Amino acid sequence: MAAQNSMERVKLGNQGLEVSKLGYGCMGLTGFYNAPISVEDGIAIIKEAFNKGITFFDTADVYGKDHSNEYMIGQVTLTYCDAYCLDPRQMICALLRVPFLRFEDKIENK
């Protein structure tokens, strides 16, 4: 499990939620800038970030197909929640952006 004291934490908003001061941007996991990595490798990367104390993950639906970033974050959350009987809201905060229409979804090939 993450060493919660190894990373400085800050309050996010006014609800009392605390997250790591350093976040992890997930855009590179699913091919936005580069070729996508495997789901297994993505999960391993997110687990390693969490184990280092990062609890704030930035993602959006436009970053990959089929919400793969959200799936990977969810798998890590489930793994640790099951293993340590924790409330997922106390473990990982994922910043999810508003849905975005991709241009290729609207282009018709004629």
TrEMBL record:
One Pfam family of this chain: Aldo_ket_red
A single MF term (Gene Ontology): oxidoreductase activity
GO CC terms, sorted: cytoplasm
Domain NADP-dependent oxidoreductase: 21-76
InterPro entries with a match to the protein in the record: Aldo-Keto_reductase, NAD(P)_OxRdtase_dom_sf, NADP_OxRdtase_dom
Keywords on record: NADP, Oxidoreductase
Recorded superkingdom: Eukaryota
PANTHER family on file: AFLATOXIN B1 ALDEHYDE REDUCTASE (PTHR43625), OS01G0618100 PROTEIN (PTHR43625:SF81)
Name of this chain's protein: NADP-dependent oxidoreductase domain-containing protein
